[in-house]
Fold this sequence. Notes:
Elements: H1 12-24, H2 27-40, H3 45-51, H4 69-74, H5 77-87, H6 107-113, H7 117-125, H8 140-160, H9 163-171, H10 180-199
Amino acid sequence: MASTQPAVSLSFEAIDDLIYSARVGDLHSLQTDIANLSHEHNCPAASIVGSAIDSEDESEGGTGACLLHWPAANGNIEILQYLLEILHNPAQPSPLINHRNHSGNTPLHWAALNTHLECVKALVEAGADVNIKNGAGHDAAFLAERSEWGTAAEADDTQENSDEATATAASSADGRPISKAMQVVECLLTYDRDTNQGQDADAGPSNGNGHDMEVNGANEAN
């Protein structure tokens, strides 16, 4: 169990309800269920959050995800911050923040993949490790970077059928705002660089985690 709080034996139905509320963005129901379960099991709310893992086997539709994965994937910063506040420990970040699902993806991977910058920032500030690689060998910055490739390819396909769009894009290329995906990449690489410099002032400059530009067809939106 990836939690600094003792694990609680929650029923399948209780876990399913918690996951559903976190997934669809029902903050009120999530707060109510966590409070009721905390009272029922006479334990801190952090123990309930840390025990609500989708532990079903992948072959049976299980994801291995924790409650943090769902708001991170959906960009629900309100629910994500609520859960992070419950898990907050000034002495040591909760291991749940870096919990890996069946595909090896952490909540940060899912937030980065879907280019949810505010969720990425919240997770990083809470202690998420930007260097963790998923089952396909990719870190969060790589997934955000790859999302940018897909967006750029779609834009290119659209512009091929519109001379006007092509002309507009060409004339505004220099002033084009940075995409959400690249904002996420920049955030993660900046945090990684600053962290490395703080840990070792004598270390050489960060190489951006060695992100190469190869395309991998593995399905990581799991």
